[in-house]
Every structure is written in C-alpha cells, then in structure tokens.
Amino acid sequence: MNILNTPDERGHFGAFGGRYIAETLMPAILELTEAYAKAQQNQEFQDDLQALFTNYVGRPTPLFFARGLTEKMGGAKIYLKREDLAHTGAHKINNTMGQALLAHHMGKTKVIAETGAGQHGVATATAAAYFGMECKVFMGVEDISRQAPNVKRMELLGAEVVPVSSGTGTLKDAMNEAMRYWVGAVEDTFYVIGSVAGPHPYPAMVRDFQRVIGDEAKRQIMEAEGRLPDTLVACVGGGSNAMGLFYPFVGDKDVEMVGVEAAGIGIESGKHSASLGAGEIGVLHGSKSYVLQTQDGQIQEAHSVSAGLDYPGVGPEHALLKEEGRARYVSIKDDEALNAFHTLSRAEGILPALESSHAMAWAMKEAARRSKDDVILVNLSGRGDKDLETVLKHMERKGA
Amino acid sequence: MSCIKNSFEALKAKNEKALVGFVTAGDPDFDKSVEIVKAMCEGGMDVLELGIPFSDPTADGPVIQRSSQRALSSGMSLPKVLEMVKIVRGFTKIPIVLFGYYNPIFSYGGKRFYEDALAAGADGVLIVDLPPEESAELTSLWEGDDFDFIRLVAPTTGQDRMKQIADEASGFIYLVSMTGVTGSQGLDSSKVADVIAPLKAVTDLPVCVGFGISTPEHVKAVAAVSDGVVVGSAFERLIEENLENRGLHTMVQEYTESLKAATRG
C-alpha cells in the first residue's frame, strides 16, 4: 500500500480511520468534508491561513540546536523544533486557527472543543476570540483541577469551560460530551477537534493543518546541517504534533520516525496511555485505530502524569504507520518524563510541557547511545508553564 | 419472513402501533434486569430493545449513560447480554433487538456475534455508531438474512441519504425525533410528521420514532403518524428512581400498560 495516498475518500488509512458515528452527526460530517475539500482548493483560504501563521501564530518557529544538552548527553546532535514558541505556547494553535478559519468560511458562529491539558482549549478559545465566535470548551473535572491556569486563560479569552464529570472526568469523557453537545447544535456550531483523531475528515484535516511543523523543520535542518535528520522524535497522545512533524518526511525512507507514548507508572501496571504499544484495534470517537480496552471491548482508563497524553486512543494514521513499519512507537514513564523536564530546563533554559518531556526523555537516552555525527530532531510541542503545579507536587513528594 | 416483520404485520391487522421499549441489559444487575424486562412484556410491550452497555455511549444522554455504568459495574458484558436474551426468549415471543455501540461487538467478533445472537434468540441489532458507509465490514460476515439490521435516520438526514440508508436497512427504521442525545426534551410531533413523509416515500419498512417520548400523550401523538414509538430513557429513569423499591416490577408493568394503551387506534 502507498501510505502517502491515504486516507481514501471515505477516510480510511488502510484498515484504520473511517467514520464510525451516529447518523445524527453524519450530515454535519459530510458538510464539513465538502467544505474542507473546497478550502483545500481555495487559494484565498490558503493565503489567509499562511498570513495567520506568519502574523498571528508567529511562524516559522525556530529549529534550535540544543548545544548544552547535546554536550551533556555526549552523543548525537539534538535539535528542537520550538512549537513552544508559537502563540499560546503549543502547536495546538496551528490547527485551531485552521479549523476556525474554516468554520468562518462555512458561516458557523459558534465553536466547541474538548481539552485535556487545556492547551487545545486555550488555542480554540484564542481562535474563537480572534474570529469573534462564541466558544464552549468541554473539560473533565479531573483535568480542570490539575490544569487550573489554563482554565483561567480560557475564561479570560471569553470561552465557557464546561466541566465534565461523567466517566473518569478526563479527555475521553470531555470528547464524549463535546460529541453529545454537537449532535444537538450542528446547525450553527463547528466542533474543533484537537488531535488527529475523530471521524473523517478530522484526522487528515488536523494533519494538514499541523504539517507546517514538518515542512518548516525539513527546510530548517537542510539549512543547518545540509541533510535530513537521522531520527524524528515526538510525543504521542492522540498524535497531532507527531503527525505534523512526521508527515512531510513519510516519503524520506532514511529518516527514522519515533513516536513516544506515555508509559505512566509502567506498562505492566496497566496504568499508562500507550494505545499503540499496549492497546488493541477498536473503534473509539468515530474512527478505528488502536484503543486501550478490556477483553469485553469496554474502553479503559488511560493514565499519564501529563494530561495531554492521558487518552486511551490514538490517531488512525499512526496505526497505519505502525502497521507498515514506517514509524516505531516507544514509551516513557512518568518519572523519566519528569527527569527530562528538569534536565532540559537546566541545560537549555527551556521548560518543556510534560507531553514534550516524554519525547525529550527518549531522545536524550537515545542521543547518548549514538555517534556524534547523528542528528536527532525532537518536536518540543509545548511549553511547561501549565505543568508547574504537577512538577512541583512531584518534587515535594520526592523530598527534593 | 422475519419475526420483526411478522410482528408489525400482526399489529397492523389489529390497527395498533408498536410499542418498542428500551432498557440497558444488566441494569441494575442481571437478575433485576430480567425481572424488569418480564414486567415490560407483561405490560404489553411489542418489541424489546435490549441495550448492550458501553463505557463511552456518545449518542446517549445522562440517564442512559448512568444505566450503562450501573450495568457495567454489576459485571455486565456482551456474552452476558446474550445469556440474558436466552432467558428472555424463554418467556416471550416478541422481537428482541440488541442495541449498542460497535466496539464491544467488534471486539467479540462480527461473525461470532451473528451466530451467537441468533442462537440466543435475538432478531436483530441496531449499532448506533455503524453507519451504512462502514457496516459492510460487519454484515458481510453474516451468512443469512435472518438477522435484521435496524438503522437510524436523523431529522437532519437528507432524502438522498434516507434512500441510501433505507436500501441497506431491514426490520424497521428508527427515526430520531429531534437533534440531540437520548432523553432530550422538546418533542414536536408535527415536526416528526414532516420528516416521516419523505422517509415513507423511499421505504416500505415500518418506521419507529424515538427520543424524547415519555408519556402516553407523546405516544399517542407520534403513533398517529408512525408505525411505532420507542421509549427508552423514561424506562431507565423509572428504574433509577426506584432501585431499592420492591414495587418496581409493578410500576414498570403499569407504566408499560399506559404507554401501550396509547398505541391502540
């Protein structure tokens, strides 16, 4: 199969993807599919998006050679794609500006979103404020308590944060609730999904809005090193920052791609978020992919110290990249991610998001094992300010 | 001829509309759930929709979400739902339609599900999140046409799409009365009539209407323009409010009788 030609017109990435949704949502999804296809062909839409990326989001973000960290690890050169420097502090803004622009073109006046760590919620609230749209953000009660600063940011941006207490009160439940709300409000409301998950066209559309990360990184590493990197590394919850980085490199067979999932307190403990590493194929939130589930097909609770990775599913295109052997997926535990947070903070003066700290942790271990001629490019998907409370709590617990 | 088709024809001959009752299998536990279904049958229900509990029911409102949670907490699973169908089949001949989300069925295995559901005595299935675009992966595993696949039509579904759905459906068509999740308020029976007309133009299958129906008055108004009505959240609300009440069986039976009376023309 030619993985570059996916998805097909019904949104299938090989055996994955698709549109597993209730009929009540189907007309809205078909309308969105058509509107997005038109927007892709519309030069004015593309120009508007580029202008937003440049003048509002702050693109291109730098590709930074982490000299201090590289010396500390004593192996491969480590480059960081600085999505933490994009407006609102994470890659999420690329996608929300794209989707809000599309909503605007479709004449929708309201947007809704789900959020775990709050970064996607903040980015959606920001885009809604920019376009003058009403915004509701669904967020699990558990996440509201561990991501309080982002809740305040969303409110300051004019969004209503809707607490979701059903299920486990985390990202998957917020997504369930957003879908339920959308069913009753499809006429004037656009659902901004935050990852390369959900029913077609979301996985492909979010990837397309995020591929700017990989497109820029490719140009920037050619300028810096005169060649492509040996390895790309990105964290994977739903998988949008990883897909954005990987996608432009999929055809470059010599570039290794590594997605880092959250091993939580250990895969063997059952408390983790490693859908690709330890899940089974299943259907969740409108698409077929790898899902954490019980033997009876009930969705299992995910766990990660990072709210943004705490999701029991993963984007269907990642499932395909795994199955085709084009990307490999590894996992990093909570403690390792927290250590990486401290290492990067001290070595480079950059506080990474706990999501990105998972990618950093794997990249550091790997760099130490590699030759000094190797180049590892890590997507630093977001900044760590939102995670200070979590980090400090863990430091206290360890008596540091 | 399928059991579902037979039932609708028999009702038509009596000038009655179908009362379709939904409950989540295993809510609040296996034994009580069987008793509740028995009470619904004794109350005169025409078709049983038995919910397969799921952890993430995205098309359902809070009442049915909680019923799913109670059932799962009591240890319910798809194999146990099939066990329950066998028991229910022991005391009633009315059609039994399984109702649920795709993942538990996918995980069980599509062919195995078909064989075991038929063997248990079920007559069909409605899978909320398996639209016509994706359903061939399941139905192509089914050998006979002895197991009906009931499909949903929404008020937002256009007529071309209605035809596409109707062509793939069997048993009956489940028309959602309004946009929103199960248990939503604001039933407007005149709007329901507006959606039924174009649907009837593209299918000969019976059309049953669900969502937002909880009183005999609702049933009467909707039955006047359809072939049947589906009541779900209202049953679950009654169960939830009377979990410890020994009179629950009688209450369910009487409530069913009051709804059924409203379907007689």
Average pLDDT, all residues of chain B:
95
**Total count of helical runs of at least 4 residues of chain A:** 16
> Unreliable stretches of chain B, pLDDT < 50, 5 or more residues?
none
Work out the radius of gyration of chain B.
Answer: 17 Å
Briefly note the structural class of the backbone of chain A: alpha/beta
Q: Helicity range of the residues of chain A? A: 40-55%
Structure annotation, total helices of chain B: 12
Mean pLDDT of chain A: 96
List the chains of the largest interface with their residue counts: A-B, 36 and 42 residues
List the uncertain runs of chain A.
none
- What fraction strand of chain A? 15-25%
The biggest sheet of chain A amounts to: 6 strands, mixed
Based on helices, strands and strand pairing, what is the structural class of chain B? alpha/beta
Strand content of chain B: 5-15%
Total beta strands of chain B: 9
Q: Main beta sheet of chain B: strand number and arrangement?
A: 9 strands, parallel
In short:
In chain A, 44% of the residues lie in helices and 18% in strands. Chain A is α/β, with parallel strands linked by helices and 400 residues long.
